[in-house]
Amino acid sequence: SFDRLVGYLMYPVACIMGVPLVDCERVGYLIGIKVFANEFVAYLKLAEFITAGNLTKRAEVIATYALCGFSNFASLGVQVGGLSPMAPNRKKDLTTLVFSAMIGGNMACFMTACIAGFFS
């Protein structure tokens, strides 16, 4: 299923951020949902995991910080649609930069999650 595929795809990202190995697939799934859907859906799923007690405290802290931010595929359209009217002659430049901006935004959130995990 899509859940398992995304969980396995983002498993290394979760491991690198310092998530305990028992929680890496779940946190990887949450990161994948954040990137491919949006952060609101991912936070709802995180709340379900926390309520059910499926994550360790450290994984909860890291996931909370990793999921924040407006860097997903849906935001690419929002960025192009919002910025291109301000500079219509630079629309081609915007479309080439939005994917890099999404990667950079996710990396910033993941680095914040690493620091939060270090102190948890």
From TrEMBL:
Q: Which organism is it from?
A: Vitrella brassicaformis
- Spell out where the chain crosses the membrane: 94-119
| Protein biosynthesis recorded as keyword | no
Arranged from A to Z, the UniProt key words for this protein are: Membrane, Transmembrane, Transmembrane helix
In what residue span(s) does the Concentrative nucleoside transporter C-terminal domain sit? 1-117
Gene Ontology cellular-component terms for this entry are: plasma membrane
Stated name of the protein: Concentrative nucleoside transporter C-terminal domain-containing protein
Is Transmembrane given among the entry's keywords? yes
Query: A GO molecular-function term, please?
Result: nucleoside:sodium symporter activity
Listed InterPro entries? C_nuclsd_transpt, CNT_C_dom
